C-alpha cells in the first residue's frame, strides 16, 4: 500500500419518504424536487471550485463566495472544494507517470519507424513489386503519424508539469462524452451525469456526519440528508456574518447489505466518522456510497509461517510456508470449500491441491469476464484466499507488482495480456478483505520470483512455476535469502554444454549461441561466485545475477 489507510466502501440504496413540501423560488429549476436541486447546486459548486483552485483562490475565499453563489452551507462548499482539490492532486500525481509512459512509448515508436524506413529502403534497392512497396509506404506513414501524436502528447504533458497545471478534466465522464460525440448517448444523459452527486465528509466531533446522518431505529437504517439551500437568513452575528435558520432534511430508509449491517451499526455506536456520497442514476434510484476508514493495520506475525500468494490472470497459486521457510503440508482434514453461490457450470471454481503444501485456485472465467461479473469473481477469489489464511492462522504475502503502460499501443500481444490481467483489482481485494478479517499481510518486491522458483523449486517439489514463485514470495516476506545452489550451478553448466559449437553451420532448435545469451554468460560468470556473499537487497535487486539466469531459463525452457 502507498502509506494511505484502507477504506471500506459500503454500497446501499436510499429511499426518500419524507421531504419538504416547499421549494426555493431562487434556486429551484422547473419541476425538480428539493433533493435534486441540492445535488445540482453541489455539482455546480464542485466544477466552480475546481476552476477557482486552478486560478489560485484560497480556501477561505472559495467558502465565502461559494455560499453566496450556490446557496449551500459552509460544510457543503468546503466538501466540494476538498473533492475538487483531490481531483487536481490525483491529476498531478499521475502526470509524472504519464510523462514517463509517453516517453517510453515514443522511444519504441521511433525505433519501429526506423525499422520500417530501413525495410522500405531495402525493398526499393531490391526492386520488389510495386504492391509490396506501397504496403511498406503505408506502414511508414502510419508509424510517422504515431510518432507525431506521441510527440504532441509529450509536449502537452511537459507544459503542464512546468506550469504546475493539471490536464483537462471532463465532468460527467470522458467515456460518456465520447459516446455523446459519436451519437451513442444523448446530451441529456451527459447533463444528468454532471449534476447527480452529493458528497459529505465525515466528522467524529459532529456525531459521524452532520450533513448526511445515518441512524438505526431498531429495525432498519435511516438516512437524513440536509437541504442547505432551503435555509434562510434570520439575523446577523456580532462579526457581521448571517445567521441561517435550521435547514430542513430529506428523510428515508437506507438499505444496507446484510453482511455489512453489523459493522455499520458498531461504527454508529462508537460515533466514528463516515463519509457519504449520494449518486442518482439515470433510472432515478439513489445509490449511497458509505466510506469507513480502516486505520487499524493488522499485525504481521511470521512465527507460524506465512501463506504466500502468486496472482495469475486466471486465479491464484498459494504456498503454505513454515517458519523455517520451507513448504509445509496442509493440516489433516484441511479443505477449501467452494462458494455456494457459484455453479453456473462444472469447473467454474477449481481447487487443485498439492500434497507438499501448495494449492492452486483457478477461476477460468476471470481471464475474460468483464464488468460486474469480473468484480464478483475477484471478490469470491479474495474471500477464499483470506479464509485459508485465517484458518491456518498465518499472514498473507503478496507481490507489489505493477504493469507499466510504456509498451502499450505498440505490441498487440502485450496489450491484450495487460488489459485483461486484473492484477491490481485482485491484490486490492485481498488486502481489503484481510483488513476486514484482521489478517496480517506483507507486500514484497516482485523481482525474479518466477525465475528463482523455476530454477530452484519447480522440479524439487514437482509443482508449477507459479506455485514455486509463491514459495519464493513467502520466503522473501520472512527475510530468507535465495542463494545460488548446486542445482542452479548445474543448470549453468548444462547451458554451457549446449552452447558448445558442433561443427554444423545450420541452426537447430536449442543449439547455437545467440549474441544475447553469449553476452549474458559473460556477465554472469564473474558474478555467480559472489552472489551468496552479497547483502539481501543486492541479491533481490533487478540487476542481480538472476537477471542473466532468467535469459537462460527463457531461452532453453
From TrEMBL:
Keywords: Coiled coil. The keyword Coiled coil applies. Residues 87-126 form a coiled coil. The keyword Coiled coil applies. This is Transposase. It comes from Calditerricola satsumensis.
